[in-house]
Amino acid sequence: MEGERRQKEKGGGKGGGRRGGKGRGMQEWEKGKGRVEGEGSKRSAECDSPLPLRKFPRRGGESSLISPDFEKRKLPGMAGGTYDLVVFGATGYTGQFVAEEVARIADKNPDLKFAYAGRSKEKLEKTLMMARANTKLELADVPLITADVSDEESLLSMANQAKVVINCVGPYRFYGEKVVKACIEGGADHVDISGEPQYLETMQLKYAKEAEEKGVHIVGACGFDSVPADLGTLFLQDSFEGDVNSVEMVVSLHDESSGNAPINFTTMECAIHGLAHSSELKTIRKDLFSTQLPKPCFKPEPRGKLFFSEEAGRWCLPNMASDRSVVMRSQRCNFELEKRRPVQFSAFFGISSLSTAIFGIVFGVLFYVMASISFTRSLLLKYPEFFTFGLFSRKGPKREDLVNMKFCVTLTGKGWEKKIEDPEQQHTDPPTVSKTVTVVGPDPGYFGTATIVSQCALTVLQEKDKLPKSGGVFPPGAAFVKTTLRSRLEDNGISFKVKE
Asked: Of residues 3 and 229, which shows the higher confidence score?
């Protein structure tokens, strides 16, 4: 993710991205899959094969991955795209996992054409070599496209060759906008794995209208941030017989290994800059959200800075990541476009022990203070391992540690037995019904994110006619509300279940 920038080269590979050889794929997941330790219970997270790509018949016996309904909607100036999927930033730490996941999917779907893109041809060749080793696939003739965020012409050339760009280059506040602009101009749909609210909301504010006019869908936050939270909330709403008033989410990580795997540095870099510029969000949101959502009559019970969740079986701390921002944007979009009743949403981190939770509070306060001051912020960025006690590292985690990790997102909704059809009409009696759902999957940051964003990209490619409007900038819960994305994720080891 963090490695794709600065070098100015232009070029591209030729060929159709066809692969040879067969392999089990996802072997690291297979070693560690199958259970997630909760509080006194085990939750299944088995990984099945990817959902087969649907093919649409054409004249002359040919077939296409793209819906004919979508092709009718394409604007005259839109690029056709040589490759179905282009992984941009394939040489970065997270990009490597995404590149491998796309290769595994393509091995099961030989008509799918894909390419890897990045600023260095040499590093792309190394990515391809690692992908061969980790997937056990031959990966013959995979095209390599040279594209650099500092060279807008190269980005446009990449976008012209793609139907969907999977953008893995962060921090997105520095490098994301140029890719979005290139995709809109080149007619390529775009998904990314950003967890940066300011970037995500700025892209919606600046490019929603232009993207709609060009027939391009820009969908942000398509990794662990924030698809489990966003689709999990939709799943909870759909599981409720009546209306949902509020949703409380607890995100917890279950590590079955003896040690702790560090988080890649770019994630920390994004968080630091996000905290440093958090005051700017108020102005962006004032311009972006010009109309108010219906005011709920019943506020959820306020939580303290530290509490125990019976539903999640965890000590909980406030979650300052992007999930709430993304979920609330989806709720707003679905209210405006689909007339779905919006919910109130709160997010927390779940910690297994009280002592660790208390340490987490102290660490969070120190991190916030250091990120807010220019001098200490530079120290954090320069010496991440030292100042975070090894929690973040420039080297990233080892793969053997990741296979022992699982995530569990617990979402508890409170609402009513009855449903009022008009989403603007409020219930007059307090909510009395409660329901909990879980979203469970593998290591969230790398294997999990690679699976999620790859399935998001396939959904955009294959079900574009089910996405909102003719184009625009959307969070995942709004973009995929009418698609089969949840089923695709369930077929690939990420479970959505109602907790009995």
From this structure: 229
